[in-house]
């Protein structure tokens, strides 16, 4: 809601259109003369300052500022000495010896994505993995609490390859696959 100024409000009176125009003209604030005088003084002062700098400048300093400084270099008349041929031969025949460390591998890896109660559920998951381009196997295991069907991928030579396939499975919303060393 708009705020209203009830204290300074003028009482409504009937005015003609001509009186309203005169009232509006008289209510306008006059243009601040002080600001216009200050602007004229500033512009004049700035112009005078530029003119003063231009006319009273030292010609030697102006020429020096316009010309780039040249640095006199000591020029050797003797050409550069050629390298020894022995040195060049030594560079050509030099061998660099580097210690190559063997990367320790923990062995082949496998990835298990699910352990399901029924064989048709395991087959459905295996088919979903096949659409991602991965070949899975279903392994039947019997434990204390019944028969389980494990859906596994692998073996993988490196953990990096297993992680790559795990990321493929994440893209098709198969989450929770675990990677471990071959047992």
Automatic annotation (TrEMBL):
Q: Which keywords does this chain's UniProt record carry?
A: Membrane, Transmembrane, Transmembrane helix
Q: Which residues form the SPOR domain?
A: 103-183
Q: Where is the composition biased (Basic residues)?
A: 11-21
The transmembrane residues are 31-53
Pfam families hit by this protein: SPOR
The organism is: Pseudoalteromonas aurantia 208
Q: Report residue spans for region: Disordered.
A: 1-25
Spell out the protein name for this chain.
Answer: SPOR domain-containing protein
Q: Does the keyword Membrane apply?
A: yes
PANTHER family recorded for this chain?
CELL DIVISION PROTEIN DEDD-RELATED, CELL DIVISION PROTEIN FTSN
């Amino acid at each position: 809601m708009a705020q209203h100024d009830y204290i300074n409000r003028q009482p409504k009176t009937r005015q003609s259109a001509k009186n309203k125009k005169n009232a509006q003209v008289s209510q306008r604030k006059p243009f601040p003369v002080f600001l216009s005088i200050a602007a004229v003084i500033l512009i004049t002062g700035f112009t005078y300052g530029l003119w003063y700098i231009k006319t009273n400048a030292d010609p030697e300093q102006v020429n020096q500022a316009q010309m780039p400084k040249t640095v006199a270099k000591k020029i050797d008349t003797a050409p550069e000495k050629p390298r020894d041929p022995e040195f060049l031969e030594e560079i050509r025949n030099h061998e660099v010896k580097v210690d190559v460390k063997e990367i320790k591998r923990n062995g082949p890896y496998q990835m298990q994505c699910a352990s399901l109660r029924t064989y048709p559920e395991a087959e459905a998951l295996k088919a979903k993995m096949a659409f991602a381009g991965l070949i899975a196997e279903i392994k039947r295991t019997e434990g204390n609490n019944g028969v389980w069907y494990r859906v596994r991928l692998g073996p993988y030579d490196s953990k990096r390859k297993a992680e790559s396939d795990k990321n493929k499975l994440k893209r098709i919303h198969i989450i929770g696959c675990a990677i471990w060393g071959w047992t």
